[in-house]
Amino acid sequence: MSDDEKVVSLSRAKHDDNSQKQEKDKEQSASFTPVYCSFCGRPNTEVVKMVKGPGVNICSECTMIAVQYLILEDRMPSGAAQQILDAFWTKAE
């Protein structure tokens, strides 16, 4: 998987064909510029996935830490939630 495939953008897609081509060209040139997580500061080259939003980015690891915090805040994660957390952290290592 290339580094630019690791970044998922939440920006709106353009409907005009010319605009789509320009957007694709921009994305390709931007693919050489790392995208950094707004929480941990790691670039998309060092993480599993990156979600890019308007003015903020979050990597998959920070997302899972946040999810884990929210689940554990209840002190007793469900069996399904614990399986998801275990599967993610096993693959992330």
The ordered string of helix (H) and strand (E) elements is EHEEHH
Structural class label: mainly alpha
Mean pLDDT: 75
Tally of DSSP helical segments = 3
The major pleated sheet works out as: 3 strands, mixed
Radius of gyration: 16 Å
Shape label: elongated
Task: Tell me roughly what share of residues is in helical segments.
Answer: 40-55%
Percent of sequence in beta strands: 5-15%
Terminal residue distance = 17 Å
- For the largest beta sheet, what order do the strands appear in spatially? 1-2-3
Number of domains: 1
Q: How many β strands by DSSP?
A: 3
Q: Would you identify the regions where 5 or more consecutive residues have pLDDT less than 50?
A: 12-16
List the helices and strands and how they pair.
Elements: E1 7-9, H1 17-30, E2 50-52, E3 57-59, H2 60-72, H3 79-92
Helix pairs in contact: 2-3
Commentary on this structure:
- With 93 residues, the chain is mainly alpha-helical.
- It has one domain (3-92).
- The protein is built from 3 helices and 3 strands; from the N terminus they run βαββαα.
- It has helices at residues 17-30, 60-72, 79-92, and strands at residues 7-9, 50-52, 57-59.
- Strands 1-2-3 form a 3-stranded mixed sheet.
- α1 links the parallel β1 (7-9) and β2 (50-52).
- α2 (60-72) runs antiparallel to α3 (79-92).
- It is elongated and about 45 Å long.
- The two termini are 17 Å apart.
- Residues 12-16 have low confidence and may be disordered.
